[in-house]
Amino acid sequence: MSIEAFDYILLEDTFVFSWHLSTDTLTFQVLASLSQAHPAATVPAAGEWACYRSGAIEFSRVSAIRGLQSQESVVPTTDPDGSVDYGTIDGLAQIGPGEYR
């Protein structure tokens, strides 16, 4: 089942900068790729094909997480401009009430 909040965000082109798990909240800091239909989208910057905006993806009231590695155990990618990221979001789907994969 799709997640309406991400209808106009291209997750496969959204870069992850970091993630943090607190007591019951999981937060990803990202550079989101917005489709032109997104209300905050602007014309892409010179040399880019999409509009990018910094943001956070936050899951609150988290009770269990499976398969998420600690950020310290993942090797980041350093781009030619020197920026560091952990790749893009391959996919995100809601599989039940409050349950995501």
TrEMBL record:
It comes from the Bacteria. The lineage of its organism: Bacteria, Pseudomonadati, Pseudomonadota, Gammaproteobacteria, Lysobacterales. This is Uncharacterized protein.
